[in-house]
Amino acid sequence: MLALPPGLDPDLLRSFVLIAEGGSFTRAAQAVGRTQSAVSMQIRRLEEALGQPLLLRGARGVEPTPHGQWLLERARRILALNDEIVASFRQPEVAGQVRLGSPDDYALGWLPGILSRYAASHPAVQVEVTCAPSNELVDRLAAGELDLTLLSEGNEPPGGRVRWLWRGPLHWVGIEEVARRRPLPMTLARGGCSWRRAAIEALEEAGMPWRMAYTSASLSGCLAVALAGLAVTVAMPVPLPDGVKRLGEDEGLPKLPDFAIGLLRGPGTPVAEALARHIEESFRTGEALEAA
């Protein structure tokens, strides 16, 4: 009989993923409830099993080697499947509360499906969702008020290790007749929003006259103004209410840049790490985008 190849211990992979994503042996040790030396030993065992170095200490902390980067993507998938299998056969052992931040722009489009699937595999976990602009969510995470948050590209903190989940186009949204007015009436988020900056820069570079007609702290507020025929706004490809549509060059509007959705984590807890992996897997497989 042929000898079976040795298996990989999920505990070793979990420690590796936490270190590779967080850039720190200390934070990973805290997340898994082990000493730093024990976690270092786990990584040595994993490297010996695979025969390749997986992590290197660099100027920005601990970073995966090329072999480590290759393993990281696959280790995430293995752990997500491992956790799903365990949760399906056991009574829920992971319990507690996890505080998730999300821009209002994504809450209705992508969160419902993600949260319902997470609740099915972690019924003893209470998820508290806070909706606010990305820059406010980043500040709340830094203050310890959130465990993890989704955010729009352009709001990531300096040196922050953001896991980028998806990249796609930013769109003008409104009514055709309104989009042809000059100066173009705009409704955007208040200062600090990266979408606001992108829209204004696009209009200025195109030499298009515009005016700020309304501001809102949320996408729903901007869409309400656009639906009333008072201004044009911007949004990513999320479900739109009847009465408005995506606009573009046919209406004389300049091209907008692509933007990304990211996931930023605070110090790890078991329930927060499980939710983070679930969110990443939902975007990787396209389940989150199908919901939108």
UniProtKB/TrEMBL annotation:
<protein>
    <submittedName>
        <fullName>LysR family transcriptional regulator</fullName>
    </submittedName>
</protein>
<dbReference type="Pfam" id="PF00126">
    <property type="entry name" value="HTH_1"/>
</dbReference>
<comment type="similarity">
    <text>Belongs to the LysR transcriptional regulatory family.</text>
</comment>
<dbReference type="Pfam" id="PF03466">
    <property type="entry name" value="LysR_substrate"/>
</dbReference>
<dbReference type="InterPro" id="IPR036390">
    <property type="entry name" value="WH_DNA-bd_sf"/>
</dbReference>
<keyword id="KW-0805">Transcription regulation</keyword>
<feature type="domain" description="HTH lysR-type">
    <location>
        <begin position="8"/>
        <end position="65"/>
    </location>
</feature>
<keyword id="KW-0238">DNA-binding</keyword>
<dbReference type="InterPro" id="IPR005119">
    <property type="entry name" value="LysR_subst-bd"/>
</dbReference>
<dbReference type="GO" id="GO:0003700">
    <property type="term" value="F:DNA-binding transcription factor activity"/>
</dbReference>
<dbReference type="InterPro" id="IPR036388">
    <property type="entry name" value="WH-like_DNA-bd_sf"/>
</dbReference>
<dbReference type="GO" id="GO:0003677">
    <property type="term" value="F:DNA binding"/>
</dbReference>
<dbReference type="InterPro" id="IPR050176">
    <property type="entry name" value="LTTR"/>
</dbReference>
<keyword id="KW-0804">Transcription</keyword>
<dbReference type="InterPro" id="IPR000847">
    <property type="entry name" value="LysR_HTH_N"/>
</dbReference>
